[in-house]
């Protein structure tokens, strides 16, 4: 049986309409679950980088939420001064969204990490031990690799100098090359090294090749082999975010005990 052109167009349009309603409906109905998964992923990354959870440990979403809420406090910080900002609800504020708002962000001076805009207010996480003492400070970090912007966290000890860990929750580097930033063995190389020298200059560097032990070689971390550009990116972005343009002023306040912790 031969169908008319009108019938074929009508039939195609009907199929497209049904499919688009189905796709749009799924996107809308799954949005809440996707948002919840993003929050869960960030919380898990913060817990891992601060050493409260082990890499690969399987906790239920409720257990992750409970551990996070009992030990981790998000704090809003004015980047320029390093002062705490009590007007912003740190639990719901989105630092990435602020970058898209000209009122809430500023253009960054040219920098090696290729950060283009800076939020006026950033979120750091204070992690406490079971006795309630400050155990770690976690700052968000981001900057250019070879193919992508890497987004992650750096965990520092309460002295703001000792590195407790590093993690990236989003990037588009090549698996097996730049993507090795996710390799737990490489990440573990950061632990126990020093972010600042004794004059408080950002001094941790990702080198080409292998560094010595944290005790012998505290300011250097192994580069990723075959991924010099990603390694350089990580080097620049870590220095940038612990430096004056990033969370340097806040970290200086923590050291000077100007910020109640
Ligand atoms: C398909 C492909 C993917 C690559 N992905 C990365 C990458 O993710 N990160 C990176 O730094 N270099 C990557 N490279 C390699 C860079 O082009 C460059 O050769 C490398 O950074 C130099 O590192 P090396 O001096 O350690 O060999 C990739 C190369 C190819 C061909």
Features:
261 residues, alpha+beta, five-stranded antiparallel β-sheet, two-stranded antiparallel ribbon, 34% helix
Notes on the protein architecture:
With 261 residues, this protein is of the alpha+beta class. It has one domain. It has helices spanning 5-49, 61-71, 95-99, 184-188, 228-242, 248-255; strands at 72-78, 105-107, 117-119, 121-128, 134-144, 149-156, 163-170, 205-206, 220-221. A five-stranded antiparallel β-sheet has the order 1-4-5-6-7. Strands 2-3 form a two-stranded antiparallel sheet. Strands 8-9 form a two-stranded parallel ribbon. The structure holds flavin mononucleotide. Flavin mononucleotide is lined by residues 146-147, 173-174, 177-178, 225-230. Flavin mononucleotide (FMN) binds at residues 146-147, 173-174, 177-178, 225-230.
Strand tally is 9
| Computed CA radius of gyration, to the nearest angstrom | 22 Å
Cα end-to-end separation = 79 Å
Largest sheet: 5 strands, antiparallel
**Bound heterogens, unique:** flavin mononucleotide
> Helical element count?
6
Structural class: alpha+beta
What's the mean pLDDT score? 93
Numbering strands along the chain, what is their spatial order in the largest sheet? 1-4-5-6-7
Q: TL;DR?
A:
The protein has 261 residues and is α+β, with helices and mostly antiparallel strands.
Q: How is the topology of this model organized?
A:
Layout: H1 5-49, H2 61-71, E1 72-78, H3 95-99, E2 105-107, E3 117-119, E4 121-128, E5 134-144, E6 149-156, E7 163-170, H4 184-188, E8 205-206, E9 220-221, H5 228-242, H6 248-255
Parallel strand pairs: 8-9
Antiparallel strand pairs: 1-4, 2-3, 4-5, 5-6, 6-7
Helix pairs in contact: 1-2
């Amino acid at each position: 049986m031969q169908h008319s052109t009108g019938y074929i167009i009508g039939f195609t349009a009907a199929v497209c309409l049904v499919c688009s309603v189905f796709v749009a409906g799924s996107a809308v109905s799954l949005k809440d679950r996707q948002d919840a998964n993003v929050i869960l992923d960030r919380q898990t990354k913060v817990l891992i980088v601060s050493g409260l959870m082990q890499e690969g440990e399987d906790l239920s979403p409720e257990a992750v939420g409970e551990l996070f809420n009992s030990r981790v406090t998000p704090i809003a910080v004015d980047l320029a001064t390093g002062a705490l900002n009590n007007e912003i609800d740190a639990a719901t504020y989105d630092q990435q969204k602020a970058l898209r708002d000209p009122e809430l962000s500023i253009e960054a001076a040219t920098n090696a990490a290729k950060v283009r805009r800076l939020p006026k207010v950033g979120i750091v996480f204070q992690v406490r031990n079971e006795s309630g003492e400050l155990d770690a400070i976690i700052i968000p970090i981001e900057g250019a690799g070879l193919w992508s912007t890497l987004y992650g966290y750096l965990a520092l000890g309460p002295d703001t100098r000792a590195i407790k860990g590093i993690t990236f929750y989003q990037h588009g580097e090549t698996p097996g090359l730049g993507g090795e930033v996710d390799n737990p063995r490489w990440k573990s190389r950061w632990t126990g090294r020093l972010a600042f020298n004794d004059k408080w200059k950002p001094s941790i560097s990702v080198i080409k090749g292998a560094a010595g032990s944290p005790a012998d070689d505290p300011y250097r971390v192994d580069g990723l082999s075959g991924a010099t550009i990603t390694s350089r990116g990580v080097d620049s972005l870590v220095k940038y975010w612990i430096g004056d343009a990033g969370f340097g002023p806040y970290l200086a306040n923590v050291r000077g005990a100007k910020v109640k912790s």
